[in-house]
Design brief:
This protein is of the alpha/beta class. The protein folds into two domains: 163 residues, Rossmann fold; 141 residues, Rossmann fold (3-Layer(aba) Sandwich), CATH 3.40.50.2020. Helix content is 28%, strand content 26%. The protein has eight helices and 14 strands. Strands 10-9-8-11-12-13-14 form a seven-stranded mixed sheet, with helices on both faces. It has a five-stranded parallel sheet with strand order 1-4-5-6-7, with helices on both faces. The longest helix is centred in the N-terminal third of the chain and has 17 residues. The radius of gyration is 20 Å and the shape is globular. The chain starts with 6 loop residues before the first strand and ends in a 10-residue tail after the last helix. The model has no long low-confidence stretch (mean pLDDT 94).
């Protein structure tokens, strides 16, 4: 019997290319399933092969349109549960609603917790994800959560710049740990941008830069790029503080609205992201590099399926 005889990887419509690449890493074929909408806008999903007592991994980043892809995932989890799957792991490379992780205004929802409840009630036995916006989201679940990080993939790409002229830059004080982790991998110092978010308008104003960036190559590190406002504000602030070149590394390239065009026209030397969500060709440009997380997720799936340590993947 093959090592993966009782393993099934299935995919919704959010990112079938990534699911196929994960299967290529594992040396298996993508499981057969279908998901679509009826004319009444109701979502339908069906698994087209036997998964009874199988170890099922459902690959579905919560990318645009987020609510459609979330509903699709929930229905596929329910379908797998009713098909008597042995264990169901929701593989969510990008966990949407992660920014709504606390009650920071009166009378608002903690939507990141609500989504966690949806997934658990639907029947997921565990969750596998990459670079949550806030690590405490893991605590919103009453099932195991494995959070991977794309930092080793991104840092490997930027090793060519590592040296006394490079500084890693956090986009705000709350993201300093992510920057420290990247700086440790590259063995360089960090700087922090003090920023102010303007209400609920997705607008950001950089206030100050803490640390020395004068004459340095600055590498901005962030978990996701939405409207691009945070990165653009950081590029402007770093330029005013004398940085010689500005690069950016981010895990989730959401690139909402005109973000791609604005970043293309900015002073960024290079933007490096991963494929946790699909990056359409019309949002790519010459100075953008998209790295694959298929091997990262594939190795984690192998380890979960085989009862091996996932954390050991990041031991240094």
């Amino acid at each position: 019997m093959s090592l993966f005889e009782d393993l099934k990887v299935l995919s919704g419509n959010a990112h079938q290319g990534l699911a196929k690449d994960i299967c290529s890493y594992l040396g298996i074929t993508l499981g057969r399933s279908e998901a679509f909408k009826f004319s009444n806008d109701n979502t339908f999903a069906r698994i087209l092969e036997n998964i009874r007592e199988k170890d099922v991994f459902l690959v579905q980043p919560l990318s645009t349109p987020v609510n459609d892809h979330l509903m699709e995932l929930l229905i596929m989890i329910d379908a797998a549960k009713r098909a008597s799957a042995g264990r169901i792991t929701a593989v969510i490379p990008h966990y949407a609603y992660g920014r709504t992780d606390k009650k920071d205004q009166p009378r608002v929802a903690i939507t990141a917790r609500l989504v966690a409840d949806f997934l658990t009630v639907a029947g997921a036995n565990r969750v596998l994800t990459v670079d949550l916006h806030a690590g405490q989201i893991q605590g919103f679940f009453n099932i195991p959560v494995d959070e991977l990080t794309a930092a080793p993939i991104l840092s490997s790409y930027f090793q060519r710049l590592a040296g006394p002229d490079l500084v890693v830059v956090a986009t705000d004080v709350g993201d300093a740990k992510r920057a420290r982790d990247m700086a440790r991998l590259l063995n360089v110092p960090i700087a922090i941008i003090e920023k102010q978010r303007l209400g609920n308008q997705d607008k950001v104003q950089a206030v100050n830069v803490i640390g020395n960036v004068t004459g340095k190559k600055a590498l901005i590190v962030d978990d996701e790029i939405g409207t691009g406002g945070t990165v653009l504000a950081a590029v402007s602030a770093l330029g005013m503080h004398g940085a010689s070149e500005v690069y950016c590394a981010a895990t989730h390239a959401l690139l909402n609205g005109e973000a791609a065009a604005k970043l293309r026209d900015s002073a960024l030397k290079e933007l490096v992201v991963t494929d946790t969500v699909p990056v359409p060709q019309d949002k790519r440009f010459d100075r953008m590099k998209v790295l694959s997380v298929a091997s990262l997720l594939g190795e984690a799936i192998h380890r979960i399926h085989s009862g091996l340590s996932v954390g050991a993947m990041f031991d240094t």
